[in-house]
User: What shape does this take?
Amino acid sequence: MKITSFLVLLLFVAGAFAGCDQDKNASAAGASTTAPAAAQNPPVDLTLPKLSLPADSGPLPAIDSARTMQYVKEIVAFGPRPIGSANHKKVEDYILAHLKGDAVEEDAFTADTPEGKFPARNIIAKFPGAKDGIIVIASHYDTNYPLRQTSYIGANDGASSSALLLEFANQMRGKKLDGYSVWLVWDDAEEAVKSWSDTDSLYGIRHLAEKWEADGTLKKTKAFLLADMIGDADLNIERDSNSTTWLEAVVYEAASRLGYQSHFFARTMTVDDDHLPFVKRGVPSADLIDFDYGYDNVFWHTPQDTVDKLSPKSLEIAGSTILETVSILDKMEALPPK
Ligand SMILES: [Zn+2]
Assistant: This one.
């Protein structure tokens, strides 16, 4: 009941702001342009499906959160990294330098945007596993283009999750994974260059999903896990109605095994993010995003998105939960289709 009324309140707020010209890429569940219409939407079903999951066995994962935070600091130290900038290229080189010796694929292409054409590049690090199939973990690394003339460095929005993927590479390097192969994807040009729309957003991941559909990779992709804005010191990861319900149930189980469930899914939103091109192609996908960054999300897409708002603990919560999610998926007999 409390949740339902909270949702209605959110719907009203989302409706009230629907006219503003922000590149808002998330909205409260079922948001409409007018509050009365929104209020008539049925409440979102917050119950997770009951899955028969393998028993908790073996040690729980733990990441090096201090090292991850150091990566965040090093990424933001380059300054704003919008597509087309010299800093953007420096961050690409930084990521690649940390993947020396790993199996890396670069997916370079030209992003055709309302502000012109830009070179863009997805970076994929592949860690082979014993089981047939791939789990993709993704993060965008570019910063918001319209804020390029400001001091905006996207410590949480882009840097935190990109740093986390570098730490995942550290965890997986040199091991033969006994589950599925894990492919880490630093995707480019997630941000809109003018205002968020189906065509002005997600340039990198749309390119990659198309490519993987054509070459058959998508058929082997068992799950797509997306991390975005997961460094917020006050971590509240949303339940997202665009994500795959059974996969969110696995994420919640993973968080619960670690004792981190209170940071997950207190609220449901409908989030447009890098998972959408995979959702649309039938790949089970979950977006792990905290869209309440500062009270009422005030730090999002502002020059206040800086490292002092983040905490190593939040990186650890998100990171360990993602690794435990992979571990559960590895042990499941068969993964449900989308
Ligand atoms: Zn953003």
Notes: Residues 1-44 form one domain.
